[in-house]
Amino acid sequence: MKIRHLLRMLLLVLLCLGITTGCDDDDDEDLNAGRSRMPAEGLGSIVFENDSSSAWNLRIDGQRIARVSENNFIAGDYTAGDHLVHLDQHQGSKEFDRVVTVEAGVVTVIRVDGFPGDFDVGVFVPALP
Question: Per-residue pLDDT tens for 59-74?
Answer without folding.
Answer: 999 999 999 999 899 9
